[in-house]
UniProtKB/TrEMBL annotation:
InterPro entries found in the cross-reference section: N_methyl_site (IPR012902), Pilin-like (IPR045584)
Alphabetical list of NCBIfam families matching this protein: IV_pilin_GFxxxE
The keyword Transmembrane is assigned to this record: yes
Gene3D superfamilies: Glycoprotein, Type 4 Pilin (3.30.700.10)
The species this protein was found in: Vibrio splendidus
Protein known as: MSHA biogenesis protein MshA
Entry keywords, A to Z: Membrane, Transmembrane, Transmembrane helix
Pfam assignment, any one: N_methyl
Amino acid sequence: MKRQGGFTLIELVVVIVILGILAVTAAPRFLNLQSDARSASLQGLKGAMAGAAGIVYGTAAINGEESQPTVTAASSASGVNLVFGYPEASVNGIGNAVDGLAADGDFTAIAGHDNISGAANVIVYGFAGDTATDSTCVVTYTTQASASAPTITSPDADAC
């Protein structure tokens, strides 16, 4: 009689099928690619806002507008509403300074967001189609009440 020395073909196929089922059910939990992609997009938006604010402030400084509490887009050399030389926290401020924040862009100002709470110096941007309930996966742009740079906050990867 011949002695069996390993797995049969059926046993090997069953083990491979079980491993495939486990991989399909467990992989999305470990990879979480959509959350990382959303977070990375918002980090890019934060960088774009910071860059645009710096460029607008440079233009305002050249034209002597950096010490004025408010400057409207019509009289501003940069074409955006300013607060102490930096873009105002509004659609006509930072919204005009950053390409892609228009009504048909990838990002949109989220109306009724909890962080706004009626303050005129804060605007919150999220993905187009998000609502006020999507409160963690957003970028918040806050202008200061004095001549200092705006504060821009974005979520960490776990928040999205």
